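Re: beginner question about structure tokens

> Can someone show what the tokenized structure looks like for a real chain? I only ever see the sequence side.

Sure, here's an example I had lying around. Input first:
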Amino acid sequence: MVSNVGMGTSFGVVLRTVAGWLIIVQAALLGMLAIGVIGSTWEGGPVFLLTFVTVAVGIAPILSSFVATRNPRKAAHIALWVAPIAPLLIFRFPWGFHAAVLVFAGALVIPGLFWLVTSRRNWPLPLRSPMFPGKPHLGTILALEMFCVLVVIAVLSSLLLPWWLPTDDCGGRPLLTEQGAPRNIDFTARIVFVGLGSLNGWSLWSIARVEHRFADLTSGPANLIILRGFFHAKDKSERYFVEGAHSRGVFTRFLPVFEPIDCGRTARLDDAAVALRVLRDGLPSSGGRLIGRVYASIHSAPRNAVPGVIVLATGPAGSVVSVTDAQGIYDFVGLPPGQYTVEPLTRSNGRYLRVGLDLKSGDVEDYSLYLE
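And the corresponding structure tokens:
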């Protein structure tokens, strides 16, 4: 006959064991969250410090969760030593995120204190005996494999987090340097896989196969890269022009992950005709160049380029005209340096006229015009 005391003791052991496993899972998830959030972003700062903090704050909780299954006291030391390091992330994030960083640092203390207190009170170990008593090394190998899997999942999950492009018309940076080389990493690619939707049905990443390179870039097997952006499932097999940069994240910098630059010209290939022409032609042999595309309306989607539109460019030497070609592109080459105004003559109320444009010799300026 089992006494009530024995039943109570047995029930208490089960509760304590379950509590220990919940804290282990919480610590592992916390580490994965850290890697996902801070491991794929970059806000400037000393590279060594940021790498050290990210590795410590992201990987240490995952490591401590594995250690806690057999040695809670050692796991407590890992968590409690890392917790004071976490506030260093304040230097990585804008002011508005500082409170969240402090909350995160406090969350790291929870598993550390739990394991410290329970180990002193001799609570039962979550894993009281080796997983494979006859093969002690097999359990260690499986734990290391699981550890690596969690880190990889955390890095990949960072691709699901919001990633924002500029929402205003900030104007594009020049495509070419003064030497005529691409200023950024420019290439064309075809989308072969679209990631899971994580933002109002949009996926924030895709896998693409590089087709044409205008600059050197590191790619994976079969010229595959991970491309950040906004994609729908229907974008599979779409071709893109990318004006991008290699990811600057602490972890993703070691992967072929590319992000479109702010104010860049990343777009579907059909909408990137101007950028492709500039990259293929290079700098003008003399004078400056004004090139762009004329669209029917800024409100239409997709935008429709209009051929046969007369575009007027007025500068220090007077006025010259260009007629848009079959792709809706106007092109003024060999213009003398000075201030220019460009406008379509078909409708004089174009909404995006660049007045007072300063064109220098050897410059290539490209921008769009709209008829309404």
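Each token stands for a local structural state, so reading them left to right follows the chain. Helices lie at 4-38, 47-67, 72-82, 98-120, 136-157, 273-281.
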